Amino acid sequence: MHNLAITLEGPSKSPGNRQLRPVILTADTLFHGSITTTIPDLQASCFLIPSLKQVPEILQPSGDDLLLFVDIDAYGIASLGRFIKQHAAPPQITVIGLSDCSELNLVIRYLRSGLQGYFLKQELNAELIIQSITTLLGNGFPLSPGITLKIIQMLIGRQQVYPATLSSREQQILNRLVNGSSYKLVANELNISLETVRYHIKRMYKKLDVNSKGEIIAKMLRNRKSPPPFMG
User: Fold this and answer.
1) Residue with the larger pLDDT of the pair 225 and 171
2) What is the pLDDT of residue 15?
3) What's the CA gap between 113 and 156, in Å, rounded?
4) Which strands, in side-by-side order, build the sheet including 93-99?
5) Per-residue pLDDT tens for 99-108?
6) Are both 2-151 and 168-231 of the same fold?
7) How many C-beta atoms lie closer than 10 Å to residue 69's C-beta?
8) Least buried of 15, 107, 121, 201, by fewest C-beta within 10 Å?
9) Sequence-separated (6 or more) residues with CB below 8 Å from residue 96
């Protein structure tokens, strides 16, 4: 990755002379092709490998610490968590997760696996990598702007955090029920039929293990008063 290496020559150095070598790892041929064709500067740093077990084979020691941008969707969070634990000892490997997931509960679960940063795949570009290196060398935590906003909204109580099992439509309906809307009003606001509202609510009952609208609202209100999941 000659172009990006030159660009990073300044930002990748810290007062302690620590350097970070950025590498992107994925097992998704479409994602790999998208990166290498639309962002030429990232071509030489993007590897298509079926398993994280192959990382030592393709990354020869360079004297620099590695900054891995890893495709969570391709490898799974369990596999990535094991990889992070196995490489906790020097030479240091810093892992930033990449995913299409913007569901806050799942993102927090990902972060708990040992990630030191997280971005949505659509946000990835050469500038983001440079900013991530600068942030890490300054003892910061690189994080997707969209995810950062969701965390802030949750902290100030402007957004309900829903179970990851609920679909986006179910979350829309539940949000309106928690805020006092009737079934009919929900149907009007979302431009769907009353029967469709009832259908989604029955599915939510099953997913959340409740038996009535009052019970489901009470459950979500209790969750709203709970500490944020990343503080538990």
Assistant:
1) 171
2) 44
3) 25
4) 46-48, 20-26, 65-71, 93-99, 118-120
5) 999 888 889 8
6) no
7) 26
8) 15
9) 67, 68, 69, 70, 115, 116, 117, 118, 119, 132, 142
89: tokens are 């000892």
- The residue extents of the domains of the chain are 2-151, 168-231
pLDDT in tens, 168-211: 888 888 878 776 678 888 888 888 999 999 999 888 888 888 87
d(CA 147, CA 159): 12
What pLDDT, on a 0 to 100 scale, did the predictor assign at position 80? 95
Give the Cα separation of 23 and 43 in Å (integer): 10
Query: Who's near 189: CB < 8 A, 6+ residues apart?
Result: 176, 181
Using a cut of 0.85, tell me whether the model's pTM lies above it: no
Query: How far is Cα 25 from Cα 23, in angstroms, rounded to an integer?
Result: 7
- Please state, as a whole number, how many other Cβ atoms lie within 10 Å of the Cβ of residue 42: 21
Give the right CATH number for 168-231 from 1.10.150.450, 3.30.70.141, 1.10.510.10, 1.10.10.10.
1.10.10.10
User: Residue 73 contacts by C-beta under 8 Å, 6 or more apart in sequence?
Assistant: 28, 98, 99, 100, 101, 121
Quick one: CATH architecture of 2-151? 3-Layer(aba) Sandwich (3.40)
What phi and psi values does residue 101 have, to the nearest 5 degrees? -80, 125
CA atoms of 26 and 46, how far apart (whole Å): 8
148 to each of 117, 118, 140, 142, 154, how far by Cα in Å? 11, 10, 13, 10, 10
Length of the chain: 232
Closest CA to 217 of 180, 186, 191, 188: 180
